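Protocol step 4 of 5: obtain the predicted structure for the target chain.
Materials: sequence only (see below). No template structures provided, no constraints applied. The aim of this step is simply to have a reference model before the mutagenesis design in step 5. Sequence pasted as it appears in the construct record:
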Amino acid sequence: MASFDETRQALPNILITGTPGTGKSSLADSVAKKLGFKNLNIGDIVKEKNFFSEFDAEFDTHILDEDAEDQLLDYLEPIIKKGGCVVDYHSPAIFGESWFEIALVLRTQTEILFDRLTQRGYSEKKRTENMECEIMEVVLEEARESYDPEMVHEVPSNSLEDLDQNVTRMEAWLQSWKTNNSSA
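Step 4 output (structure tokens):
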């Protein structure tokens, strides 16, 4: 797991994670815009920078082996060190705990998630695997095992109202973080 020497940055970093289809990218984009943070969609970066070892056609996904993961983390580390980043990725365990001050794990009701994955055109196998992942709370447990439990927050992501509430929640959290970390 990646880590770096912590020197308190001016702004915190936020991890937004969850099963595919839970709304990570929508929330990350909204939070980044609202807070003036840099939005890092890890899936897009993996594709753009070729940080993958192969493409799995059956699951329509890029595969990160250990070397590709190391390249990705080496690329991200100087960006994350600056602070003020919202990171969007479905697998929270690849990042070091010191990279983030808060981790939001998005949770979506299964019937809503099923419809979202169907609308994306996911194969039956990929949809079933992601549905099982959400039901079994795989990403939530991975986040809880990877980070201090106090920084991991399970939040609903079923509707536009949930999205708005989560953005508002992050605005309030940032204000509290700034108050608690001011150099006064």
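Step 4 remarks: Helices lie at 24-35, 42-48, 66-81, 110-119, 124-135, 138-146, 160-180. The chain has a mean pLDDT of 89.
Proceed to step 5.
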